[in-house]
Amino acid sequence: MTRLSRWGLGTLAVAVALTAVRSARAAEVDKLLPADSELVVYINVRQVLDSDLVKKYALQQMKQALQGNDAQQVLGQLGLDPLKDIDRVTIGASGDDPQKIEGLLIVRGKFDPTKLYQAAEATSKTQGDKVSLVKEGETTLLKITADNRPKPFYATLVDKGTLALGTNKELVLDAVSGKKQALKPAIAALVTGMDEKASVSAAWSVAGKLGTLPLPGVNDPTVQKNLEKTDSLTLTIRVESDVAIDVGIGMKDAESAGDFGKIVDQGLQQAKGFLPLLAGDPKMRPLLELGKTLALDVKQKQINITAKLTADAIAKTLNPE
Predict the structure, then answer these.
(1) I want to staple 123 with a disulfide (CB 3.0 to 4.6 A). Which of 93, 131, 234, 266 is the partner?
(2) For the chain, which residues make up each domain, given as ranges?
């Protein structure tokens, strides 16, 4: 083999290796996520709206819903077209009590700062008890008071392409500060394993949180024992021509994964047995079709549950014979 050919093969090998590394690159942790986040959700809005399934069955209905007089007026004031201007939504949340969960919602897309704040200021003059503008140093925050929540929400534009809305103003101000916040190792490991190209990806670090979870109608103590050994929950939804769902349950060790996997599988099989009873209701057909594809697999410390809803099943539901 000539020196030139050896050099060419070496270069090719390096290129292949670099390509493999790039393709396997872990998802990046959003720098705006609160440091104490235990639940992280990514919603790839642009991918969902561009999917074949949504274009065929839902996009027109979305457009019609947004063409109502009230919706059109509000969106026009904000200078926002959600079907064109929103690309991605990220949520970081923490808290054991559902009534006291704290979190930050990060919306990335295209925003008109002038129109957004002008609309907020106009609304504050007529609904000052609901919406107002407040200053925190150099940052202007939108304060939003909801009827069913004792504490207000706060929102601001981090930049022209990013809107942050938090359950308290400290979370929003931390996002505006530009300081990268380090997540706890357990949730950071889950987030870097998420699929950024999926329609929806979620990861929840639950170690020590599920052992006391009330389960109405469940009297089996082994279920509670296995919940105590659950470290994480993940969800991935891919909306393309079909809808694919993948649920992951991370356990403390392989033994507990095997034990809990058997219990979960038994529950799934029982659910499949009841599903045919729903066949007479057209609205329940997607659930029936989803149930037929349910599958469970246990690998080391991980329990994976998969299911798929086909475009045909959705079509039959929308257009029953």
Answers:
(1) 131
(2) 39-177, 206-318
